[in-house]
Design goal:
The complex is a heterodimer. By secondary structure, chain A is an all-alpha fold. Chain A has six helices and no strands. The radius of gyration of chain A is 19 Å and the shape is elongated. Classes of the chains: A mainly alpha, B mainly alpha.
Chain lengths: 214, 308
């Protein structure tokens, strides 16, 4: 059909973009695990830089996709829906990069008794972001099913919120110095922010799918 | 051939106003380009007029007086009214304008031909109502199919685009088949226009020319100002309009493509909730439907009194 070549190009580019976002999140997970395990600072810096590079690659791919979309590749409505959705996903990658930079520059020391909590928060945030990526992919496979996957992202985001709240509660119940508490709180909030943005991106996916479910 | 000037003008005006009824929803939804729509419409209108336009020509020919001067005046009066409405961006019924003009001339002569009129009037009322019903049915059926079909959102766009062009071509075909009678039916039986086949072909060409040159403004009214359309809604509305027109082409009564598409668009709007229908715009269109035959009748009566 007339549109099919352009369709394949758009889908391939968006798939590549999502892989970059997944790589960015994986690099952040490695960076945080490095920091939590007490690894040498050089290693933490290297992982943080890797996260930033992955985020930059994601940005470049997203811009390429936007140019293709603006080249009148699709229906105007589909074009604007996809651009809005890509911007939402981009905010997730930005949040991951922001956490990596915070770990690198602030060198916040996580007390041993809080490390498991941070690990748990990271796992829940990763699960949320993974589901969000799955929802986006589903738009190009079975858009009717994308709505249900988007709903799951919301549930996972709530669980990430719980983990974040638990950390903050424990931090301020501890004997740490106020400044240390604030840094730990901010770190937890920033990690939780990834899940918040993943939920917003999933909302865009839901709206995009529902609009086509007449 | 100069006498056909009235018919040519009317055909052009009908094409300009009614092409919008076929492709207006798709063009206003920005799914199909205006140039693509205009060309497909023009080609299919000529085909429809030539292959299936004769019954409509015969019906209207039976209503009209067998008088070349009357035929020219009727065509010209209807064309003026339709062109004015097109310039205002209002979808108007060419069928009603033509019938109004014919009756206006008849009333001037104190010899209006009421035979066949009841059948025509019933079909006029049935057209938008039928289109509403068909649109509701198609909307429901189509949505069930889409819900159960696994596909990418972009594949859905491709499918809808393809279907819109195909249905638009079909709608253009039925427009030609159904409405060519409005354009050249008044000439049927007059000297030298005895061949309905030739009248059908000429009428189709006139309509096609109007579609290509002047239909964009009414397209935006039909497609955007009455009910906000996406690709699926545009497809349902166009399909319902095309099918309704084809039914009446078989019956042999020229009906209004405008009324068919407005009925179809309203049907789609109702499926999405009554707030989806722009009531003010609907009233504006309804008023023009009422005024166009009356205005055409008055104008035709006036022009017929002008010495030849």
């Amino acid at each position: 059909m007339f549109f099919s070549r352009k369709q394949k190009a758009v889908e391939a580019l968006i798939a590549r973009y999502l892989e970059c976002v997944e790589e960015c999140l994986a690099c952040l997970a490695a960076c945080l695990e490095c920091a939590l395990s007490g690894a040498p600072y050089d290693q933490v810096v290297e992982k943080a830089k890797a996260t930033h590079r992955a985020e930059s690659r994601a940005d470049d791919t997203r811009r390429e996709a936007a140019i293709l979309l603006y080249g009148k590749a699709l229906f105007p409505e589909s074009r604007s829906d996809l651009l809005r959705m890509l911007e939402g996903v981009d905010r997730v990658a930005n949040a991951a990069d922001s956490v990596a930079r915070r770990i690198r520059f602030e060198r916040t020391e996580v007390p041993a008794d809080l490390r498991d909590d941070y690990q748990e928060l990271l796992l829940r945030v990763q699960a949320c972001a993974r589901e969000m990526v799955k929802a986006v992919r589903m738009l190009f496979d079975d858009y009717n099913a994308a709505v249900h996957i988007s709903d799951r992202v919301g549930d996972l985001e709530s669980r990430a919120d719980e983990a974040e709240s638990r950390i903050i509660e424990r931090v301020f119940a501890s004997d740490l110095e106020t400044g240390h508490k604030i840094l730990l709180r901010d770190l937890a909030v920033k990690i939780g922010d990834i899940a918040d943005r993943a939920e917003k991106a999933a909302d865009h996916v839901r709206i995009t799918a529902i609009k086509r479910t007449v | 051939m100069l006498a056909l000037g009235g018919g040519a003008f009317l055909g052009w005006a009908l094409g300009a106003n009614d092409a919008a009824n076929v492709f207006g929803t798709a063009v206003a939804a920005r799914v199909v380009r205006f140039s693509t729509a205009a060309i497909v419409c023009a080609v299919c209108v000529v085909l429809g007029a030539w292959l299936e336009g004769r019954p409509g020509i015969e019906t209207l020919g039976a209503l009209a007086p067998n008088d070349l001067r009357a035929a020219v005046v009727a065509s010209l009066s209807a064309a003026i009214v339709v062109t004015f409405m097109t310039w205002r961006g209002v979808p108007v019924s060419t069928s009603q304008a033509v019938v109004g003009a014919i009756l206006g001339i008849g009333l001037t002569e104190n010899a209006p031909n009421w035979a066949g009129l009841p059948k025509i009037l019933i079909c006029w009322v049935a057209t938008p109502i039928g289109a509403v019903v068909i649109a509701c049915i198609l909307y429901t059926l189509g949505s069930q199919v889409l819900k159960r079909t696994r596909m990418s959102m972009l594949t859905r766009d491709n499918v809808l685009w393809g279907l819109l062009v195909v249905v638009g071509a079909y709608g253009s075909y039925t427009l030609g088949a159904n409405n060519v009678g409005n354009v050249t039916g008044v000439y049927a039986g007059t000297e030298p226009f005895h061949d309905p086949g030739r009248l059908a072909l000429l009428g189709g060409v006139f309509i096609g020319a109007g579609a290509i040159t002047f239909s964009r403004r009414v397209m935006m009214t039909v497609g955007a100002r009455l009910v906000r359309m996406d690709a699926y809604a545009a497809l349902v509305a166009t399909s319902a309009q095309a099918f309704t027109m084809h039914v009446f082409a078989w019956i042999g009564v020229p009906v209004s493509a405008s009324q068919a598409i407005i009925g179809a668009v309203v049907g789609v709007g109702l499926m999405r909730g009554t707030r989806a229908v722009h009531a003010t715009e609907l009233k504006r269109i309804g008023l023009s439907w009422l005024l166009s035959p009356i205005t055409a009748a008055a104008l035709a009566a006036l022009l017929y009194r002008v010495p030849a």
